[in-house]
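## retry 2 of 3
previous attempt timed out at serialization; input unchanged, resubmitting
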Amino acid sequence: MASQATILVIEDSVLSQRLVEVVLTSQGFRVVEARTGEEGLRKALDEQPDLILLDVHLPDMSGYDAVARLRAQPETAHIPIIALTASASAEEEARARGAGCDGYIAKPINTRTFPDQVRQYLG
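## retry succeeded, writing output
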């Protein structure tokens, strides 16, 4: 499943988006991108990704609001959502999990370990 898995990356930073895309596509993942929460919600419905990597700081809504909206829709409620955040702290991780995220990865990502972290969340 992992090598052909579709990953939706909802991230407003072009640099972060590019890095994640390069690292994951080099490992055989299909990457779909969104730059805003609204775009990410639409793409989650349309693409039905295997996993969503979600920046918690988006220009149009908080990542936690996006999680709530994804969890509220039957079509997207089952998709694992991993928070991507530069706010690396135990409090932020607890907040992400409390908001409905299945996991948490701190930015900047470690390009060597990131693909394996993603694979773990894919099950």
